[in-house]
Amino acid sequence: MTAPVGSTTLGARGEELLARFGDRPSLFFEGAWHTSGELAGRARRLAGGLAALGVQPGDRVVVCMTNCPEVGVAYSALWRAGAVPTPVLFLLTEPELRHVLTDSGAVAVITTPEWLDKVRAAGPGLPLVVVGGSGEGVTPFEELERAEELPLVERSPDDLAALLYTGGTTGRSKGVVLTHASLDAAGAAAMAASHVPGETTTLVPLPLAHAYGLLVSVAGLHAPEPTTTVLMRWFDPAGAVALVAEHRVQTASLIPSMIQMLLAQPLEDADLSSLTRVSSGGAPLALDVAHAFERRLPGVEVREGYGCTETSALIATQPAGERRLGSVGKPIPAIELRIEGDEPGSSLPPGQDGEICVRGPVLMQGYWGAPEETAYALRDGWLHTGDVGRLDEDGYLYVVDRLKDLVIRNGFNVYPRDVEDALLEHPAVAAAAVVGRPDPAVGEEVVAFVQLSGTATEEELLAHCRERISAAKRPREVRVVDAIPLTSVFKTDRKALRAQVRAEV
Hints:
Layout: H1 10-21, E1 25-29, E2 32-35, H2 36-53, E3 60-64, H3 69-80, E4 84-87, H4 94-104, E5 108-111, H5 116-122, E6 128-130, E7 138-140, H6 141-144, E8 160-165, E9 175-179, H7 180-194, E10 201-204, H8 211-219, E11 228-231, H9 237-247, E12 251-254, H10 256-263, E13 277-280, H11 287-296, E14 301-304, E15 316-317, E16 330-331, E17 336-340, E18 354-359, E19 366-367, H12 371-377, E20 378-379, E21 382-391, E22 397-402, E23 407-409, E24 412-414, H13 416-424, E25 429-439, E26 443-452, H14 458-466, E27 477-481, H15 494-503
Parallel strand pairs: 1-11, 3-4, 3-5, 5-6, 6-7, 10-11, 10-12, 12-13, 13-14, 26-27
Antiparallel strand pairs: 1-2, 8-9, 9-19, 15-16, 17-18, 18-21, 20-21, 21-22, 23-24, 25-26
C-alpha cells in the first residue's frame, strides 16, 4: 500500500516503488540495461559516500551532467541523504553557473569530466564528485558508491526537495523552491492523467536537469505497473527514431521543437508502429505541427500539457480518455485556476484572454532568497504565471502566449504565437519566431524569422500572412534564417532575436 500523495518524501516513494515491483530491467541507456535493484543499491551507497564527504540534510548539491543513469542515481542518493539536488544544464556559461553555485550556497558539485574545468572555475574550492574522473581535488563518483549503504534520512514532505533555477530569459535566474510534497503531487497527477494500461515503455530525451524532465522522473515513482525507460544522453532526431523502432517504444515525452525535428526525418522508413502517444510540453505546440505529426504517424496521438517550474512543471494536461487538440487540456484536479483580467483578483469568463493564475499543492514555496520576487509572483496565494490564456466552456485551457513576449503595435496586442501558427501553415515553413522591434511610428513593429524546409520568398510569406492575419497584427518583415535559435532546453530563444533586432535600431 502506498502513502497518500504529498504525505511522504521522494526518497521513501522510491523505496515503495522497488518494494512493489522488485528488481527488474528498468532503464536502457546507450547499449546497456540497468535494473531497478542495481540503481537503488548504487543510490543507497552513494548516499553513504556523500554523507561521509560531509553532505548534511538540507544541503544543496549541484548536479551538472548530460543525461545518464548517474543523474537518477545522484538524485535518489541526495533525497535519501536528506539533501537537495540543484540540477543545472551543462550548457550554462561559467558566469551563469557561478551564479547558481553562489546563490544556492551549494556545498558540492556532481559532474562529468568534460565539464570539470568549467565547474572548477565557477566554484573554486567546492568538493567535486566526478563520474569517471580523477585528479587533484576530485572525488570519483565510483569511489563514493563503494561506501556503506545509508539508511533513509527522515525528512518532512514540506522540506526542500529540489532547487531549480529558471532560465533567466528576463534577467538573472532565480532558484525555485520545490518541496517533496509539491513534486510528489505533480508526479501523481501526471501519471494519473497519462497512464494507459500496457503502455509501459517510454522514450525520454528531455534533459533531466529541466523541470519537465524531473517531472517525468517523479511521475515514474507513481507508476501502477512496471515500466521501462529508454534514456537519451541528448536528443537527436535520427537516434530517437532508431530507439523507438529497436525497443518498441510506446510513448515519448517531447517538446515542440523536438517534434518539428522529427518531422524532418524519413519517419515512414522505420517501423514505428509501437508508438501510440507523444506527450508535448515545455513550450506551446502549434496545431499545424501536431496535425502533421499525426498524419505522418497515423497510430500516434499527440497530447499537449502545460506547466512551469514554479508549479513543479504541471498545471494542466489532457484527461485520460479525452483530448482536445489545440488546448493544453484541463487543470489537474489538485489545483485551482483562474484567468485574471486587468483588475487584480478578477476572474474572466470562458472565451476571454487574461493572465493564467493558479494555486494548490504543486506550487513552489517561493524563490530562493528573493522575498520581493516571491511576494510579486505569489499574490494572495495565487501564482501569477505571466502566461496569457483562456478557458473554454468545457474547462479546457488554451495558452495564448507569454505576457513578456507581447508585441504592442499601434495600441493593438500582437501575440507572437498567433503569427507563428499562421506562418507554420505555409508548407515551406519548418519553424517560425516572432518578436517586436522598437519603431517610432507604431511603437513596435512585428518581425518574423522563419526557417524553411522548402522554397518561399519573403514576398510570398508576407502574402500568406495577409490572408490569415489582420492588418493591425501581421508582420511587415519576414527574415529567412538557416535555423531559429533555441535555448539549451530547445525553446525558441526570443531574447537573442529581440537583441538582434533592437541592435539594428
